Amino acid sequence: MPLQSISPGELARKQQQGEAIDLIDVRTPVEFQEIHSTFARNIPLTGLDPNRLMHERKSGDDRPLYFICRSGSRSQQACEKMIAAGSNQVVYVEGGTLAWAQAGLPVKTGKNAISLERQVRIATGSLVLVGTLLGFFVHPYCLALAAFVGAGLVFAGTTDTCGMGLLLARMPWNQVKPGATAGADAPTCAASHHPALPTP
After folding, report:
1. Percent of the chain having pLDDT more than 90?
2. Which of 14, 15, 88, 188 shows a CA-CA span of 20 to 30 A to 156?
3. Angstrom distance (rounded) from CA 11 to CA 95
């Protein structure tokens, strides 16, 4: 079954019209702290528990759960996890937070951070470089490190699952102090509102 999606503008209009929207941002806490939709709450993909989310909902509540990330990949993975657990009322936001901000929709901003995607590129590039240099100057067997990283990239591309990204998301520098960004009303973030929603 193809995943359901919604544009940032359409979701913002639903919220502006008074519809109760449950928007879950699945990026790391640090990414969420940097910028997020004013009514999003943060549940990192690495800590997403579909059964708990479904259990928290009131009986008979069939409203969709909306997921957003940086550009759309992680929110689609979140939808797939929810569907695998038996929840079909899930929708991801097309283009993620990048598209949301580019559309001029209301956001809260905080301290700048390096996105998880950039961290993955930095880490993989560094490992390939180190493996290659060690292979030339220390021992040819060290080239296996570069080959291993290359195989990992192929696997990530074909399965749309990045093990390194999941690992980096759990690192201390991608976390924030408890209570710093608990949800859409995080006190450490400043709101930036756009006066009007864009037309479709």
Report:
1. 56
2. 88
3. 12
Rounded to 10 degrees, the C-alpha dihedral 184/28/106/121 comes to: 180
Cα(76)–Cα(73) distance, integer angstroms: 5
Residues whose CB falls within 8 Å of the CB of residue 26, separated by 6 or more in sequence, listed in order: 43, 44, 45, 48, 67, 68, 69, 74, 75, 77, 78
Query: Above 50 in pLDDT, residue 195?
Result: no
Residue 17, classified by CB atoms within 10 Å of its CB into exposed (0-12), middle (13-18) or buried (19+), is: exposed
Say what the pTM is.
Answer: 0.70
Pick the CATH number of 4-113+178-192 from 2.30.30.50, 3.40.250.10, 1.20.1250.20, 3.10.150.10: 3.40.250.10
Residues labelled catalytic: 69
